[in-house]
Amino acid sequence: MNDNVITVENLTKKFGNFVAVDSISFEVKKGEIFGFLGANGAGKSTAMKMLCGLLKPSSGKAKVAGFDVFKESDKIKRSIGYMSQRFSLYEDLTISENLKFFGGIYGMKNKDIEEKTNLLIKKMNLEEHQKSLIRSLPLGWKQKLAFSSAVFHSPEIVFLDEPTGGVDPVTRRQFWNLIYQTANEGVTVFVTTHYMDEAEYCNRISMMSQGKIVAIGSPKDLKSQYNVNSMDDVFLKIARA
User: Fold this and answer.
1) Highest-confidence range of 47-56, 83-92, 120-129, by mean pLDDT?
2) From CA 4, how far away is CA 110, in angstroms rounded?
3) Cα(136)–Cα(73) distance, integer angstroms
4) If 0-12 CB within 10 Å is exposed, 13-18 middle and 19+ buried, where does residue 87 land?
5) How would DSSP label each residue in the chain?
6) What sign does the CA torsion over 64, 69, 72, 74 have?
7) pTM for this structure?
8) Residue 131 to residue 28: CA distance in whole angstroms
9) Displacement of CA 65 from its chain's centroid (Å)
10) Half-sphere exposure at residue 128, Cβ-oriented, CA atoms within 13 angstroms
11) pLDDT tens sequence across 52-109
């Protein structure tokens, strides 16, 4: 049985003569935490946009949650969750209003939205704050709520685009605990990050450079392959090359 939820084969994106993503191939399994790393300009964001159905590839093949990125981008959008560094929340809405809004976008029934909202607010001990505007909440809470809204509709895959930028190390570690919980429930987590210590938390990692995937494997395998002790050093070796 094929348990891959993302399959990519020679996926390419060109803008005129510039090749932003150059014939990349990889697979991601169900429930896996897959790190998608590389320096600025390496092609990560462009590749992620293609996988999320937001940008049409120039050539190659890719399926996300069983749907073709060329022909079924709308179905992909309904089957995934997405969170960016900007948290994707509406600052002038309350916690409950944000969750109701996102649940509605993904076609959830009102009864299910209400039940899941109540469970989530209770789980996060936010009963006293459910009518507070998002802008009034601490950054760490916003981050956790943004992640919760991205998986609110129980997607097969959640894409996290540098989700922990600008927060302190303790909050980042708490956020990764949420990621672990989500992966343990069978949701695939596809994450980009500039923090190499976070790369250590992933099951597998791909490293991009100049539009190509130049290394892929578990943190342990990559450190062994490059004969170094940390993912920082792996990154430096690839960047220098």
Assistant:
1) 47-56
2) 32
3) 35
4) buried
5) ---EEEEEEEEEEEETTEEEEEEEEEEEETT-EEEEEE-TTSSHHHHHHHHTTSS--SEEEEEETTEETTT-HHHHHHHEEEEETTTT--TTSBHHHHHHHHHHHTT--HHHHHHHHHHHHHHTT-GGGTTSBGGGS-HHHHHHHHHHHHTTT--SEEEEESTTTTS-HHHHHHHHHHHHHHHHTT-EEEEE-S-HHHHTTSSEEEEEETTEEEEEE-HHHHHHHTT-SSHHHHHHHHHH-
6) positive
7) 0.91
8) 39
9) 14
10) 2
11) 999 999 999 999 999 999 999 999 988 899 988 766 788 999 988 999 998 888 888 9
**Which tokens is 38 given?**
């590389």
Pick the residue with more confidence: 152 or 86? 152
Pairwise CA distance, residues 220 & 51, whole Å: 26
Closest listed residue to residue 180, CA positions, set 166, 199, 201:
201
Structure tokens at 37: 């790393």
Cα dist. 151→95, 103, 127, 147 in Å? 15, 10, 20, 7
Of all residues in the chain, the percent with pLDDT exceeding 90 is 56
Residue 121: partners with Cβ closer than 8 Å, 6 or more residues away: 95, 96, 127, 130
